Amino acid sequence: MQTALLYAALWLGVLAALAACWWSTLVGLPGNWLIVLLAVAVAWLVPPEAHLAIGVPVVCVLVGLAIVGEVAEFATGSVATARAGGTRRAALMALVGATVGGLSGAIVGLPIPIVGSAVAAVLFAGAGALVGAMLGEAHAGKGLAGMWQVGQAAFWGRLFGTLTKAALGAVMAIIAAVAATF
Predict the structure, then answer these.
(1) 49 has pLDDT over 80
(2) Residue 98: how many CB atoms within 10 A of its CB?
(3) What does the pLDDT average to over 65-89?
(4) Residues near 73 by Cβ (< 8 Å), separated by ≥ 6?
C-alpha cells in the first residue's frame, strides 16, 4: 500500500514538473529540452520494479520531437521573413528581437497570475521579431511600406513557430506522462 501511494505521489510530481517544463516553452525557455531531461531523470532514478515505460525508445521520440520543435520555431520566422522579401539581416534581427521581446514579455506579464507571463512572452516575442525585422530592413534602405511588410511576416512567422513548438511540447509532455505511469 505504501509503495502504491509513493508511486502515485511520484507520478503527480512528474506531472507537475512536465506542466512547468511545457509552460517554460511559452516564456522563451527551452521547455521541450527540459521535458527530455526530466524523462531521462525519471527513467534513471526510478527503481526497475516500478515498471516504467520510459526507456531509450521514449527518450528518442522525445528528442526527435524537441528537434522538430526547434527547427519549426526557427524556420517559420526565417521563411516568413524571406518570403516577404526580407534580407538575411532582417531575419537575424527578427531572431534577436524575438528573444529580447520574449524575455521582456515574460517579466512584464508576471503580475497576471499563471497565464500572464506566457501570453505576454509570446506576444512580445512576435513584436520583437516585427521590430527587429523592420530595423534590419531599414539598414538595407527599404521604405516604410517594405519594412512593415517584412516585419508583419516576421511577427506571424514567430507566432506560428512558437505555437507549433508549444504544441509539440504538449505532445511530448503527454507521451512522457503516459510512459511515466507507475
Answers:
(1) no
(2) 30
(3) 90
(4) 161, 162, 164, 165
Cell of 120: 505576454
Sequential DSSP letters for the chain? -HHHHHHHHHHHHHHHHHHHHHHHHHTTS-HHHHHHHHHHHHHHHS-GGG--S-SHHHHHHHHHHHHHHHHHHHHHHHHHHHHTT--HHHHHHHHHHHHHHHHHHHHHTTTSTTTHHHHHHHHHHHHHHHHHHHHHHHHTT--HHHHHHHHHHHHHHHHHHHHHHHHHHHHHHHHHHHHT--
Check whether 1 has a pLDDT greater than 70. no
State whether the Cα torsion 61-36-14-31 is positive or negative: negative
Distance CA 92, CA 30 (A): 19
pLDDT, tens digit (0-9, with 9 covering 90-100), for 121-174: 889 999 999 999 999 999 888 899 999 999 999 999 999 999 999 999 999 999
AA letter at 154: A
CA 102 vs. chain centroid, Å, equals: 11
Give the predicted TM-score (pTM) of the model: 0.82
Three-point CA angle 111, 112, 114, nearest 5°: 120
The Cα 133–Cα 38 span in angstroms is 35
